[in-house]
Structure formats: structure tokens, C-alpha cells
Write a structure and sequence with these properties.
about 120 residues, Thrombin, subunit H, mainly beta
Length: about 120
């Protein structure tokens, strides 16, 4: 699959065309971020979609791509080809931006990612 389709489910099922999601690429994961935003993780980057439809986007550096990810309401961690891990979390002050907290360049083999509480 090389695309993302967003649907609205109510009395009928309809395609949503103004969701802020990038529809021309597969979505690895999506989640509600904070109280009123969405995050879409796709092979080339991360889209943080705010309630007013503004989008902040982070692109994977160079020719690397995202191949594993884990996300919850406050955090995102991604594994890039080449073995890098990048960790993001919601800005603790204004809670409207994702900020990079850590980049691990130990070139590890990542089989899976998951957040535990």
C-alpha cells in the first residue's frame, strides 16, 4: 500500500479530504497527541496536525527513512534506517509542539518499539 485514506464513520462512511494527513504515502502510525492534535508518522517524516489545521512537519534526514515507531499522547520514538533512534515529546511549556529530546546514533538493530507504563 502506498497511500493513506482517512475515513469518517457515522451513519455513513465517507472519505475525509481535509484531515491534514498526507495521503500520498503510507502511514506507519497515527495517534491523538495532547488534547486536540493528531500525529501521523510515515516513512519520510512526522506530521503534527493541530486542531486549527496548522501542520508542523519533521523530515527524516538525508536518505534515511522511518521503519519502526511507537507513539502515545505525549511521546513519539522512531527508528531510522541506519540504526538511529529519535525521541520526541510534547513541549512541556505550551504543549502544542513536538520537540526532539534525544537522538541515539549507536547504530543498533531495531526489531520493534513500544511504550510501557
Amino acid at each position: 500500500m502506498n497511500a493513506t485514506l482517512v475515513l469518517s464513520i457515522g451513519e455513513t462512511v465517507e472519505e475525509v479530504t481535509d484531515s491534514g494527513f498526507l495521503g500520498t504515502t503510507p502511514t506507519l502510525s497515527c495517534y491523538t497527541l495532547g488534547e486536540d492534535a493528531l500525529v501521523q508518522i510515515y516513512p519520510d517524516g512526522i506530521r503534527h496536525i493541530r486542531v486549527d489545521k496548522r501542520v508542523n512537519e519533521w523530515k527524516a534526514p538525508g536518505k534515511r527513512s522511518i521503519f519502526r515507531c511507537a507513539v502515545n499522547a505525549r511521546q513519539v520514538v522512531i527508528a531510522l534506517t541506519g540504526g538511529e533512534l529519535v525521541y520526541f515529546e510534547m513541549d512541556p511549556v505550551n504543549k502544542t509542539y513536538l520537540i526532539i529530546v534525544m537522538i541515539d546514533i549507536n547504530y543498533c538493530i531495531v526489531e520493534g518499539l513500544e511504550f510501557y507504563y
